[in-house]
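Sequence and structure are kept together here, with a separate record for every protein. An example record follows, reproduced without changes.
>
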Amino acid sequence: METILAQGLEAFKKHNDPPSIPDIPHLDGLVRITEAGKRTLWITFVVMAVASLIFLLMSFRQPAKARIFHHVTFFITATAAVSYYCMASGMGNAIIKAPGNHAFREVYYARYLDWLITTPLLLLDCCLLAGVPAAEIVLIILADIGMILTGLLAGVDDGRTTRWGLFTISCLFFLYVLWGLLFSARNTAFGKSDRVGKLYLGIAVYTAVLWIAYPVVWAFAEGTNSITGDTEVLAYAILDIAAKAVFGGWLLLAHENVEETKIQLPNSWVTAPNSGYGRVSQQRRMLSSSSRPRKRDGRSHSSLVSLNTIYAPTRFMSWSCWC
């Protein structure tokens, strides 16, 4: 009897035991930036902000119609400055599953938002320098946007297969951008003049080499989780400073010395059109004055008509009585 009771009690305990909690992967393998990485972000923010101020001041040396390169280049570094300010302040990041057992990595999607704005502006600078037709500029920029968006999706994806599939698609978009920069736009630039062609070729090759380094850093960082967060931040910061601040300074200084590269915007783009308010008002006054009744002997024709209308019956009655 005691054996039966003991077995029943043991079965009751097993039935009422709390369910076992499965092992949850802890963030022990989290790869993120340290204080050194944050200092790198703050330094890059200062560099981009100073470059933006310099480019803005340089624009005042040119007439308003010839500032298109200065304004575009200013917004490139200004956008990058805002992006680095956000990243240095701890914003614009996410923790994703990285390659490896229980491995996680801090990914800054603010960097991709920065590239989504700045890389089309960089391409616009290059295309305007070469004199590329508008339709071709649109195609190159659309390919660039596709490259950045697929790169962003690859960076935040936690699946090994889909991550590298999206990365491959991004590289295909990148190949089209490189073709537009190094071949199509190059031919257009040399068609303008040899000076423009040589200037553009130097800037285009410089930009292409730097841009090729970005997917290499991505492969070691988000792709395979092989480098630390501080190394990733430092690599991207060096590339961004070279591809934006140094690129902008080179472009603007060379652009001012090559007359064929200067673009004059229409007056309607830089000056407010004359609203014509004065002329319209004057015309209205002329029309209103012409429609007024003419004056006779200091009195208007309308007043004479009204007086004649009022006194006409009186005159008729007096004439009848006289008769």
About this structure: The radius of gyration is 37 Å. The chain has eleven helices and five strands.
